[in-house]
Design goal:
Elements: H1 32-36, E1 44-47, E2 53-58, E3 64-71, H2 85-92, E4 96-97, E5 100-101, H3 105-110, E6 114-120, E7 125-132, H4 136-148, H5 156-174, H6 181-189, H7 204-209, H8 212-222, E8 228-234, H9 238-249, E9 272-278, E10 284-292, H10 298-310, H11 316-324, E11 328-337, E12 341-350, H12 356-373, H13 377-394, H14 404-415, H15 420-430, H16 433-444, E13 449-455, E14 507-511, E15 517-522, E16 528-535, H17 549-557, H18 566-576, E17 579-584, E18 589-596, H19 600-612, H20 618-635, H21 639-652, H22 668-673, H23 676-686, E19 692-698, H24 702-713, E20 738-742, E21 748-757, H25 766-775, H26 782-790, E22 798-801, E23 808-817, H27 821-836, H28 843-855, H29 857-860, H30 864-876, H31 883-892, H32 896-906, E24 913-918, H33 920-928, E25 934-937
Helix pairs in contact: 2-5, 4-9, 10-13, 10-16, 12-16, 13-18, 17-23, 19-24, 25-28, 25-32, 26-27, 27-33, 28-31
């Protein structure tokens, strides 16, 4: 919510202007009914005698099964003084159980689990993983053990560890620009004692006060099988599932029934307006109304009304405040639907230099106007098509954060109907403007809570107190009074070898009639086509002295053609359910689209119009310029943005094209002075067919895809001189040091450590990257386990190789609590030196990594998007198109000695340069004790990484 996503994706074009050009003919779109009809998730449902609800869905496209367990417990169930308990227990339930001691990520990693995580919301807690089918027994054993046999493994030490991790998760979120808005929002609309008033993560004070008996009592009251829904989706059916579920879950006794708290939708007695200061680049105005929950008849109508008002790219707010009047750089409107209530949120980020009071008054006027008129029939239809298209794409995955298991589970838990998603789609398809208008009038005409966030120093922050150390005298106890004693379930189930189970599709290469290479693969699970065009350009091709040209060109490309202005173009995409996007990496510029395949022909013609005939309307350039400048300002208030600005010249040297990465979105002075001709020149040099390849994954056959692309792009020809990139022959020498970027009011410090390696991305890097699964990548890496689990100074830390065309740096990213910044760097250095010295890959780590990497392949490439990414990556790195199919054999050929040798040949523990973003007053004394030179810079000077105190 807090991030300001300002730059849309675009390219550049012909001199004619969209505003004065003739109108393009309407796009031909398939009827909405044709898009809705294929959306179906057949399921079977049964209930065990202990109350566990089980839902199965069969999808045989890959030998994987999604396991998703949803508990009817969230922050709304927490009493006063116990805020954050549901989320804290989500963490505790990953720390081992009575018959599966140790971290749950360990056995799940070794079986090749993907889409693995747990989340907590106001309404529920869920745990999910997608596993190879032969590993299903182990996954069910683990899930049942933490449901029924957990508390004997919950000790004071485990509680203290996860309390610290959660408090750092809270600090990490709070440390972002606008990071404290989430607390103000719910406190502003829900009264004292309302179950939705307090945040899911809870207060530092309540987390500090949580005792061992408190958390055990919390578990006993909420996590029984009768308060849970288990969904198994994938290569399984109910006949196979029932005996397995009975075997692993059947003996767990019922617990107390979860009781829904009494929740009413409050109405504010009068409008409330608050103002708060934060270290942000732009003022944000937010208006919030309490509204009914997702089962209320008004809920779908409110969703549609708000999408038309501020959700679509062509929404009322976007068209007026951003595009026509240029008062705001970003706007949005939407409903955060909860089970028993919701929050309707309208937001505008004020364009720098514009009076915020003027924007607020205009926003109020637009709300009043919208309540009088409501959405049009065309707006309602575009909302429905856009939402249905997104739903179709999301249901390709069987599990994860948004796949089919999620749709079934949330329907059952919230609405007592696993097929509730169908009702939602039907509501969309039959929505009328009158219903949407009536719902908006009913709820938005009530008093609103208004929060205005203005730039300034934060006014205090609630920090954690040092939790008193409690002697860990807890004896192992069963999860319930009747439950089995610890360790009575036998050993964990084994997993059969599944090395040959990857079903990576055949990749076919051909050419369009203009000679552009087409790289294609077919996936038929969902009727969606994904197209990605990769240009040999990227940030390295940005214009020296005019950094931001590449980004501005791309951001303006999608803002109108010679026959469609930006609003007409956005509306055309919405009628097709088409999303267009792209971006600049270090070496490439990508631009592409996703669309329901029923609209492939029309979408391809629209995409070709954008590529071949962009207008670069001067009015749109000015609007995008303002948004880009605001985004630059936002980057300079973000910890990660400041680190990204500081590191590149230190790592690559000022003469490398990769040093341009420090500009991020762009140099503000350059962006402010860019002319239309600059964008046209960059587009002509870099965004051209002789620098592009087209990658497609579709359910439609190659002949149909190729014909559609040829119809739109077959006559697109390159003209003029192509751009070139030149890299220095010698890499810059790196001097180990610490650069501290002073960011006051930071409860955390962000540590970024990096060095250049001798690796070449287009050679075999598998041994080095596999070795890094032990050191830096993944939850179980030594870096993360040390800073997060052992020391609980961080919510998560990682390190990895960045495979670039002309450089392969190794980069570590570690946000840590501010008072542990120096010790955390010392610990990182100790971990890296140990790994590269006498403490290399252990047999246990080796086996876990090789088994995990091999077994997870089927889950990793389950979706079309993952296949598309692999196709592009293979091409960029010079790998064969069947590279993924060869990976099982390659992994099995590795040895611990090969991993150690690869890591030691590529990483030198004494060559790291460190960038730290944090409060210098707190952090500087800690850094001085590390024995490295320390430079302090202010955010405005961060791009040079020089100067400051010594």
């Amino acid at each position: 919510m807090a991030s300001v996503l300002l730059a849309s994706t675009a390219l550049a074009g012909a001199p004619a202007l969209a505003q004065t050009a003739p109108s393009a003919p309407p796009v031909k779109a398939a009827p909405l009914s044709a898009l809705v009809a294929p959306v179906n998730i057949p399921y079977e449902k049964f209930t065990l005698p202990n109350g566990l609800t089980v839902i199965t869905h069969t999808d045989r496209k890959a030998p994987i099964v999604a396991v998703s367990v949803w508990y009817d417990v969230g922050s709304k169930h927490e009493p006063t003084g116990k805020t954050g308990f549901a989320h804290l227990f989500e963490h505790l339930m990953f720390n081992g159980s009575e018959n599966a001691p140790g971290d749950f990520f360990d056995p799940l990693r070794s079986i090749g689990a993907t889409d693995l995580n747990g989340t907590t919301s106001y309404d529920r807690t869920n745990y999910f993983e997608t596993v190879p089918k032969p590993a299903l027994d182990r996954a069910l054993f683990l899930e049942s053990d933490r449901m029924g046999y957990l508390l004997g493994a919950v000790t004071q030490g485990v509680l203290d560890e996860q309390r610290g991790v959660v408090q750092n998760e809270k600090r990490q979120g709070d440390n972002q620009p606008y990071g404290l808005v989430r607390y103000k929002m719910t406190e502003g609309i829900f009264p004292q004692g309302h179950p939705y008033r307090h945040s899911v993560i809870g207060s530092m004070a309540d987390l500090d006060a949580a005792s061992l008996e408190d958390v055990k009592s919390w578990f006993r009251g909420h996590y029984g099988p009768n308060n849970a829904v288990l969904v198994l989706a994938g290569d399984i059916d109910a006949k196979e599932a029932r005996p397995l579920v009975e075997k692993y879950f059947g003996a767990i006794p019922k617990g107390p029934e979860s009781v829904l708290p009494t929740i009413t939708v409050p109405t504010l007695a009068a409008p409330v307006r608050e103002e708060m200061k934060d270290r942000v680049a732009a003022t944000m105005i937010m208006k919030v109304w309490p509204v009914p929950g997702l089962n209320d008849p008004d809920s779908p109508a409110l969703d549609v009304a708000m999408s038309a008002f501020g959700g679509l790219a062509s929404s009322r707010l976007d068209n007026e405040l951003v595009k026509r009047e240029k008062l705001a750089v970003q706007v949005s409107a939407g409903v955060q639907s909860l089970s028993q209530a919701g929050m309707l949120i309208v937001r505008a980020v004020v364009r720098p230099g514009v009076d915020a009071k003027q924007v607020e008054a205009r926003l109020d006027q637009m709300i009043a106007d919208y309540l009088r008129t409501g959405p049009t029939a065309d707006e309602v239809a575009r909302v429905a098509t856009t939402n249905v298209s997104q739903t179709i794409g999301g249901l390709e995955s069987v599990g994860g954060f948004g796949g089919k298991a999620v749709a079934l589970a949330q329907g059952e838990l919230y609405s007592n109907d696993p097929g509730f998603y169908k009702k939602e789609l039907n509501e969309l398809a039959t929505m009328t403007p009158a219903r949407a208008k009536a719902a908006a009038q009913k709820w938005m005409s009530r008093p609103a809570y208004t929060l205005v966030v203005v730039p300034g120093a934060r006014e205090g922050y609630e920090e954690a107190k040092a939790a008193p150390k409690v002697a860990d005298t807890s004896a192992p106890t069963p999860a319930t009074a009747e439950g089995p004693a610890k360790g009575t379930r036998g050993s964990m189930p084994g997993v059969a070898d599944i090395g040959g189970a990857l079903q990576f599709p055949k990749v076919t290469r051909s050419r369009l009639s203009n000679g552009m290479e087409l790289v294609y693969a077919q996936r038929t699970a969902v009727p969606i086509t994904q197209v990605s065009m990769a240009f040999d350009a990227g940030i390295a091709a940005d214009v020296t002295g005019k950094l931001g040209t590449a980004g501005m060109t791309l951001a303006t490309l999608d803002e109108g053609t010679t026959t469609r202005n930006s609003i007409a173009l956005a509306e055309a995409k919405e009628r097709l359910g088409m999303s267009v996007g792209g971006g600049n990496s270090a070496d490439q510029t990508t631009f592409g689209f996703d669309v329901p395949s029923a609209n492939l022909t029309s979408a391809t013609m629209l995409f070709a119009d954008i590529l071949k005939n962009p207008a670069f309307d001067p009015a749109e350039i000015e609007r995008v310029r303002g948004q880009t400048l605001a985004q630059i300002g936002q980057q300079r208030t973000s910890p990660q943005g400041l680190a990204d600005m500081t590191l590149p010249p230190l790592l690559y040297g000022a003469d490398s094209p990769y040093a341009k990465l420090a500009a991020g979105v762009g140099d503000p002075a350059a962006v402010a002075s860019l002319k239309r001709e600059d964008l046209l020149a960059w587009r002509a040099a870099w965004l051209r067919p002789d620098k592009a390849k087209v990658f497609v994954v579709s359910d439609r056959p190659l002949a149909e895809v190729q014909a559609a692309l040829n119809a739109g792009l077959g006559d697109w020809r390159a003209t003029g001189t192509a751009g070139t990139k030149t890299f220095p022959a010698q890499r810059a020498a790196i001097s180990p040091k610490i650069v501290l970027v002073d960011r006051p009011d930071s409860p955390q410090s962000l540590i970024v450590a990096a060095e250049m390696t001798p690796l070449n991305a287009r050679t075999d890097t598998l041994a080095a990257t596999t070795a890094n699964t032990v050191l830096g990548s993944g939850f179980l890496s030594r870096i993360n386990m040390d800073l997060r689990e052992a020391k609980h100074w961080s919510y998560g830390a990682r390190g990895g190789y960045q495979l670039m065309q002309n450089a392969v740096p190794y980069v570590i990213n570690a946000p840590v609590q501010a008072d542990k910044t120096g010790p955390a760097i010392a610990s990182l250095r100790e971990q890296i030196s140990g790994f590269l010295g006498q403490n290399g890959v252990t047999p246990v780590e080796f086996r876990r990594s090789i088994d995990g990497e091999t077994r997870q392949l089927a889950g990793t490439y389950e979706t079309s998007g993952a296949v598309l990414g692999a196709m592009r990556s293979n091409d960029f790195l010079g790998r064969p198109d069947n590279y993924q199919a060869t990976l099982p054999q390659k992994y099995r050929a590795l040895t611990p000695q090969a991993l150690d040798a690869a890591a030691r040949a590529s990483i030198d523990p004494n060559r790291f340069v460190y960038v730290v973003v944090g409060n210098a007053a707190t952090v500087r004394p800690q850094l001085d004790a590390l024995g490295l030179p320390v430079e302090v810079v202010q955010p405005a000077a961060a791009t040079s990484a020089t100067g400051g105190s010594k």
